[in-house]
Specification:
Shape of chain A: globular
Distance between the termini of chain B: 13 Å
Strand content of chain A: 15-25%
Radius of gyration of chain A: 30 Å
Largest sheet of chain B: none
Number of strands of chain A: 21
Oligomer: heterodimer
Order of helices and strands of chain B: HHHHHHHHHHHHHH
Helix content of chain B: over 70%
Structural class of chain A: alpha+beta
Shape of chain B: globular
Number of strands of chain B: 0
Largest sheet of chain A: 6 strands, mixed
Strand order of the largest sheet of chain A: 14-18-13-17-15-16
Chain lengths: ~600, ~325
């Protein structure tokens, strides 16, 4: 017994001495200059589940993929038009049916294998054969895509097309890694880590699920190696913690910050805030699911519970006319946005067409008059209008609990509707609840948002009849619109497509299936006391990071790089604060006290 | 004989409880609104074609009816010790792998803080019971009651704001610094400084529990006749306390301690959330958000097994240290 007790005491003593010793070393090392690798740390609040592009993709997956892989044709830094990527040149045949694409020489995969046109052929054909949802929209009317030699790819379509130069937002995968996996199901289940092989400026080298992703620079990158050694993406569970980590210098960059927190960062020491482009929008959707009029037949089977009054375009138009978009931008977004109009954000300057009518122009008096004229009158004097059938105009209005902006907009709109003589019952629910409500068409109004591509194809597709029950917010259905959608896919010139896309925006604007409330800016912030070299893409108002083709990551460098100060985030920055010592010492003392008590108790017993 | 029957009885009870828990967990998560596929598409913006959605439904087994289809599949697999694969949090990975990946971090945090709460709570409890009404007793009583009644996450946020936000002494969250270029001792201290605030929160929050149980049980014992007898024999007061009172008073505390270690596995979901501490608790929250049914069920199964085993150990330990339980 006694031996054991001695041993315990010895262990505790050694522990304490060792602890103090370590303290000395740690403090000593704190003062030594850091010649560590240059790490740039990015905070995020969204999940990082997988790096397999055939799995569904989140914004963060896209970010990591954009550094890990290359596109066949890049988005140009200034205007996001087609720019050389893995392909250096491309030209179309006279009839617009055949595109001949020349690929870059001397590019190697991260494992040293040479890249060839066959890799593109393999990637595109895998998507075409298996209709991969994330990418299939980039390949309308494809007849074949073939590599005729190592440097030449031939894309043949059944209709004239400009699809190859839109360009397809598809990451090119190495055939020599993916083809041997076998079936598409096996490819989908492929972890793609470790040994994530791409051609991009960085390679994913470390992946701690739910915590961090580490990307290490590719020294042999064809466009020149990046300056930073690694980029780390770190997950936070809430925005407040992430912002506080930026303030403390634990991380270097954050994006998609909400307005209040963004404002709190303005003027903070060492931090520069940046108002990025307004690529997405928030919209208020009307439930238009109607067994009689919806083309695709979905609403016959799933009619939902939408209020029939909202199927009258006059009602929707009147509602839109009382919504003061400027006020929403000012009071909900704190000015970081633009008033909403059409479903293609002005950010996509090539495709956005300002409305040609004043269907949704702000005009509360006109809106009231429209309702009066159409027979929506308050017949019982309770302040709420009745429909011509005598039903009170009362709508269920759903807002997302995750979005402050949603809830604030909703409250303003509800007030404006009350003034118009329309009652609303607001329900604030989680995204989970709202997806069910949306799917069952168990709502009248809701507010949600979209974050479209630079190319408008996808957002335009969501308003086609076939998307009812899939992506359509409203089950809007219009035969002309559907035809135009197909037509824009086979447009042979940018001008022709612009024309069609403009008409489509007008149709949606005039029929008001949704009210586009505002286009909200992406708000970014970074540690400018440590970093420089971030560039904007697109120009003039672009993202600093998270660009469609990454440019900033190649030029990003520690402040005064090359000078005496190495800079960069060094892990030692957090130091070992005094509190830890108090904690450790407290713990050790507690153990010592216990041991002492036991010992003394026992020894008295022995004596007795 | 008696011991054996007692043992078999207790284990049997535990197994029946486990079956009940399995069923309960299954239905609990399916009552939640939100369908995993809809959350992926509409909720998270993943572009899956209707065919892909159907494939995914089949892969996850959510194309079947909840009862009996999914339920029987789940029970069958679980009884064969196959917990399935995670669908969304870690697509395609075995639930067991995903869970045990994060478990060490939680064990480290919750295990050490539970041990500290026990040590501090029990010592304060003994002292308080012995010197009942003294200054020390009054202050520990007030202190531990206050800490005990503040929800952990509120205490956590307060400590976070104070020590991390305002004083800037500690990092605001995570397991270690993201850059990952620290090694050896530096890394150890980095990890400790990240764990300190959640550790402190948990330790403070649970001192009260042990303090109160130890104190009241000691008070009960001190009123017993054999204590009077011991005193009458002329034994020194400290000797009476240690040899006669504390040992007997420890019985209820031992149960509590065993039970507490059962909850170590379940960790501290709220505290892990507040400090973005990447343990199993945080992961279960992510699984819940994404409706990753397999991971949720697996995680909660491990949580429940932890508690059950701890219960069983408490029962057995109790029988071992207190013969009255066995024979009764």
């Amino acid at each position: 017994m006694r031996t054991i007790r001695r041993a315990m005491a010895t262990v505790v003593a050694i522990g304490m001495v060792a602890g103090l010793g370590l303290a000395g070393t740690a403090f000593a090392q704190d003062t030594s200059p850091s010649d560590e690798k240059i790490s740039f740390v990015i905070g995020t609040t969204t999940g990082l589940p997988t790096v397999n592009p055939f799995r569904g993709l989140t914004a963060e997956t896209y970010y990591v993929l954009s550094l890990q892989y290359d596109l066949m044709i890049n988005f140009a830094k200034d205007d996001l038009s087609a720019a050389p990527g893995l392909a250096t040149e491309w030209e179309s045949s006279e009839d617009g049916l055949t595109w001949t694409i020349t690929t870059r020489d001397g590019v190697t995969w991260h494992d040293g294998e040479p890249f060839t046109a066959e890799d593109i052929e393999f990637t595109f054909n895998t998507i075409l054969e298996n209709e991969t949802g994330s990418f299939i929209d980039y390949f309308p009317n494809v007849e074949s895509i073939e590599a005729v030699d190592d440097n030449t790819l031939v894309w043949t379509a059944t209709e004239p097309t400009i699809a190859p130069v839109i360009p397809p937002w598809v990451y090119i995968l190495p055939k020599h890694i993916w083809e041997p996996l076998g079936s598409y199901a096996d490819m989908r289940n492929f972890a793609n880590f470790p040994d994530t092989i791409g051609t991009g400026p960085f390679q994913l080298t470390e992946f701690v699920r739910g915590e961090t992703w580490t990307l290490t620079k590719n020294e042999d990158y064809w466009a020149g190696a990046p300056i930073v050694d690694e980029i780390v993406v770190r997950k936070f569970n809430n925005e407040e913690a992430m912002v506080s980590a930026l303030r403390q210098g634990e991380i270097d960059y954050i994006s998609s910050v909400s307005v209040n927190l963004f404002n709190s960062l303005e003027g903070a020491e060492g931090i520069t805030t940046h108002v990025g482009p307004a690529t997405g929008f928030d919209q208020m959707s009307f439930n238009m699911c109607d067994a009689d009029t919806t083309l695709a037949g979905y609403c016959e089977k799933n009619p939902g519970t939408g209020n029939p009054a909202l199927r009258d375009p006059v009602v929707r138009q009147a509602i839109s006319k009382v919504i003061d978009r400027d006020a929403l931008v000012e009071r909900v977004l704190g000015g970081y946005g633009e008033p909403g109009s059409t479903i293609v954000p002005p950010f996509a300057a090539q495709w956005h067409t300002p409305p040609t009518s004043d269907t949704q122009a702000y005009d509360p008096a006109g809106a009231a008059q429209m309702l009066e004229d159409a027979g929506y009158v308050d017949t019982d004097g309770d302040g709420v209008r009745e429909t011509p059938d005598g039903e009170p105009m009362k709508f269920r209005f759903f807002l997302r609990s995750e979005s402050d902006e949603n809830q604030k907009s909703g409250e303003f709109i509800a007030d404006w509707l009350t003034d118009l003589g329309i009652a609303t019952t607001i329900t604030v629910g989680s995204t989970d609840e709202l997806t069910d409500i949306w799917y069952e068409h168990d709502f009248d109004l809701y507010i949600w948002g979209w974050g479209p591509d630079p190319d408008p194809d996808f957002i335009l597709s969501t308003y086609t009849s076939g998307q009812c029950g899939v992506w359509s917010d409203t089950c809007f259905s219009d035969a002309d619109y559907d035809e135009l959608y197909d037509a824009q896919q086979v447009a042979t010139s940018v001008e022709e497509r612009q024309q069609i896309v403009g008409e489509m925006q007008d149709i949606v604007y005039d029929q008001v299936p949704e009210v586009v409330l505002f286009y909200n800016n992406t708000l970014e912030a970074y540690r400018s006391d440590r970093w420089e070299g971030l560039v904007q893409s697109p120009e003039p108002q672009g993202f600093l990071l998270g660009q469609y083709t990454p440019y900033s990551e190649l030029t990003l460098q520690p402040l005064g790089f090359g000078g005496t100060d190495g800079g960069g985030t060094s892990g030692g920055d957090s130091g070992i604060p005094i509190g830890v010592w108090l904690g450790i010492i407290g713990g050790v003392i507690a153990i010592v006290v216990i041991v002492a008590l036991v010992r003394r108790g026992r020894s008295e017993e022995d004596l007795a | 004989m008696g011991t054996q029957r007692y043992l078999v009885g207790k284990i049997g009870q535990a197994l029946i409880t486990l079956l009940f828990i399995l069923t309960f967990n299954f239905f609990l998560f399916r009552i939640l609104p939100g369908d995993p596929i809809r959350l992926l598409t509409k909720g998270a913006g993943q572009r899956l074609t209707p065919t892909e959605q159907q494939q995914l439904r089949e892969e996850l087994g959510v194309d079947r009816s909840v009862f009996p289809g999914q339920y029987l599949l789940y029970m069958g697999q679980t009884l064969r010790l196959d917990l399935g694969v995670s669908s969304i949090v870690a697509p395609g990975e075995e639930v067991t792998t995903v869970f045990f990946e994060k478990l060490p971090k939680t064990l480290f945090l919750v295990g050490t803080s539970t041990a500290a709460s026990i040590a501090i709570g029990v010592i304060l409890g003994i002292y308080g019971g012995w010197r009942r009404g003294g200054a020390m007793d009054m202050s520990s009583m007030t202190g531990s009651l206050v800490l005990y009644s503040i929800p952990e996450f509120v205490l956590g946020i307060m400590l976070l704001l104070l020590f991390s936000g305002w004083l800037g002494l500690f990092p605001s969250g995570g397991f270690e610094s993201a850059t990952g270029d620290l090694t050896g001792i530096d890394r150890l201290f980095d990890i400790l400084s990240h764990a300190f605030l959640p550790w402190l929160t948990l330790t403070l929050a649970f001192i009260g529990e042990f303090y109160l149980v130890m104190r009241s049980s000691l008070l009960d014992v001190l009123g017993e006749e054999y204590i009077s007898l011991a005193r009458a024999k002329g034994l020194r007061e400290k000797w009476v306390l240690r040899k006669h009172a504390v040992r007997n008073a420890l019985l209820p505390t031992v149960t509590l301690i065993a039970l507490s270690f059962g909850f170590v596995l379940g960790g501290a979901i709220t505290v892990e959330l507040v400090f973005s501490y990447p343990g199993v608790g945080l992961q279960s929250f992510e699984a819940l958000e994404a409706r990753d049914y397999a991971l949720l069920q697996g995680t909660f199964l491990f949580f429940s097994v932890g508690v059950l085993v701890a219960n069983l150990i408490a029962d057995l330990l109790y029988a071992y240290i207190d013969p009255r339980v066995r024979t009764a």
